[in-house]
Amino acid sequence: MRSLQTAEVEITPGMSWLHRVLGRLSESGRDLLPIIVVIAFFQLVVLRQPLPQLGQMLGGLALVVLGLTFFIRGLELGLFPIGEAMAHSLASKGSLFWLITFAFALGFGTTAAEPALIAIAEEAAQVAAGAGVIGTDSGAMDAYAFGLRLTVALAVGFSLVIGVWRILKGWPIHYLIAGGYVIVMVVTAVAPREIIGIAYDSGGVTTSTITVPLVTALGVGLASSIKGRNPIVDGFGLIAFASLTPIIFVMVYGMLV
Amino acid sequence: MTGLGIALEVLLGTIRDVLPIATILLVFQFVILRRALPNPRGIAIGFAYVLLGLSLFLIGLEEALFPIGRLMASQLTHPEIVGVAASTDWRDFGWIYAFAFAMGFSTTIAEPALIAVAIKASELSAGSVRTWGLRIAVAIGVAVGLTLGVFRIIIGAPIHWFIICGYIVVTIQTMFAPRSIVPLAYDSGGVTTSTVTVPIVAALGLGLAETIPGRSPLIDGFGLIAFASLFPIMAVMAYAQITEYRNKNRAPETTRDMGEHASTGSKEGEEA
After folding, report:
1. Closest residue to A70, CB basis, from B52, B119, B159
2. pLDDT tens-digit profile of B130-178?
3. Closest CA to A237 of A150, A151, A170
4. What is the DSSP string of chain B?
5. Three-class SS of residue A147?
């Protein structure tokens, strides 16, 4: 229960169960408030239209608040502990091979099935077909989209391997990221123009809502179980690699196909 | 489709997304590590909560926010609202900048992945990185990034010049930012764009690229997510620098916690 202390509402053990639940719900409600304000303002003041289907909207918002509350609770109970526990046991097992394999499998496995990536890969296939890079028949486009997904998944798997390696070695992150930026710039100069926008976007879509907490817990758990590593300096940074390498890999894919 | 049908479909979709992750975790835990989990019941409940929570969250968004968000994005980018039909003058799009900024900020505040990272960061830094401070910094970063990304689509400039300039700014900031914030700042670029932000942002980019003559939705519609991932890095480092500066002024000796304190322990010593 230690992470409760970081919540905005101070939760003391003496508080009743109902109070705690209400406290969590109201926190989620507060997270949602800005969106509601923005939508209401633009709809009523800028577009000057009534809010359509108000009842359905309110019902939906209640679900969002409830869902967010469950998710955060599940995060504290399930995702964070399992990520850190696995990092600890992998570190204490002392097998570099399995640690690296685990990092790769986690990155590759979670990314290959990522819905946002599937959507963006299909759009990218249309761009490529439109530019005459591949055939316009659906077979060629499917193959291209699948290849792209595989490329991004490989990139994320690879990035977690580098990220874990960096935690083990204790290298400062900025040299690696700066090096990555230089590679992005160089590859941008030679990559076909149509692929650039997609490549840059693919870095952002790879890390989903479930992957992020797990990968964060993995890094933090690893850094805290290795002597001489600081969880906040060394533990974070895995996601940064996972958002950078797909940019490079996708541009290279665009050059090869 | 009925409400229940949609709900079931979303739940199945979420389970399908979690399945590969759960498989990898289970195989490693029981086949390779051969170790019992510390609190299997709690973890199972946690996973069930995550599945249920994410499904409810997505169903609610699909019911309440995405339809109106998409509709507003397409209405705002409609030539009638823009005022001048077929305009390419970037000054004619005032409300679209405002919408991109406001939407970027508000959707980021509600982003579950960012909440997760903020909780972890605040826990590890013993409170010197505040959850709300981090979340607001990232949200401002996304807001500025989206506004600039929309501006780019309107003027039709190539994306890579903006991104490369952004990289240069990030690199310069890295030299001056407190060491312990750098990895967190780099991470926050990747966590910002997931469940809530992407669908509305995609609708905005697509609508704009369709409305403005000479833009192709397929080529110019992309790139907003890249902007939304780059600017939070700058915003978080700026936030850390401001916090450090204010702490330094307030109490010169005690509270330089954000930067030096956490990092002097290990190999960062010679840098700090």
Report:
1. B52
2. 889 999 999 999 999 999 998 888 888 888 889 889 999 999 999 999 8
3. A170
4. --HHHHHHHHHHHHHHHHHHHHHHHHHIIIIIS----SSHHHHHHHHHHHHHHHHHHHHHIIIIIHHHHHHHHHHHTSHHHHSSTT---GGGGHHHHHHHHHHHHHHHHT-HHHHHHHHHHHHHTTTSS-HHHHHHHHHHHHHHHHHHHHHHHHHT--HHHHHHHHHHHHHHHHHHS-GGGHHHHHHHHHHSSSTTHHHHHHHHHHHHHHHSTT--HHHHSTTHHHHHHHHHHHHHHHHHHHHHHHHHHH-TTT--IIIIIHHTTSGGGGT-
5. helix
> What was the ipTM of the complex prediction?
0.83
208-247 of A, contacting B, C-beta below 8 A = 208-214, 216-217, 220, 228-240, 242-243
Q: Closest approach of chain B CAs to the CA of A49, in angstroms?
A: 10
Q: Using one digit for the tens of pLDDT, what is the confidence trace for A46-56? A: 888 877 778 88
User: Position B99: which residue type?
Assistant: F
Give the number of A-B residue pairs with CB atoms closer than 8 Å: 372
Average pLDDT over residues A24-28: 87
What is the pTM (predicted TM-score) of this model?
Answer: 0.84
User: What is the DSSP secondary structure assignment for residue A50, as one 8-state letter?
Assistant: P
How far is residue B196's CA from residue B65's CA, in Å, rounded to a whole number?
9
Cβ proximity of B105 and A42 under 8 Å: no
